[in-house]
Amino acid sequence: MQKIKLASVLSAPIVSEKSAIAADKNNQFVFKVAKNATKLQIKNAVELMFDVKVESVRVLNVKGKIKRFGRTLGKRSDWKKAYVKLQSGHSIELATA
């Protein structure tokens, strides 16, 4: 049951220029995670799914943008992003994962 719960913590990797630079320079990888996930849950989920050792986790809440749909205003959902720093010698290949 614990492994099933940890598998639902990570939603998707975020692939952008900023995340590619963080991966190259600081060995950090960026993931979209569940809104109620804690740092410890994120660390355990990454270690379980990718078989790596995590050094640190930083999280931030991303606010949804206000968008106009014709006359009405709408709001995109808020979500949570995690920057996961791996220990030296460990890496994640997101193209094959």
From TrEMBL:
Top-rank lineage group of the source organism: Bacteria
One GO term describing the cellular component: ribosome
Presence of keyword Disulfide bond: no
Pfam families assigned to the protein according to its UniProt record, in alphabetical order: Ribosomal_L23
InterPro entries: Nucleotide-bd_a/b_plait_sf, Ribosomal_uL23-like, Ribosomal_uL23/eL15/eS24_sf
Subunit-level organization: Part of the 50S ribosomal subunit. Contacts protein L29, and trigger factor when it is bound to the ribosome.
Family of the protein in this entry: Belongs to the universal ribosomal protein uL23 family.
Function (record text): One of the early assembly proteins it binds 23S rRNA. One of the proteins that surrounds the polypeptide exit tunnel on the outside of the ribosome. Forms the main docking site for trigger factor binding to the ribosome.
Protein name, per record: Large ribosomal subunit protein uL23
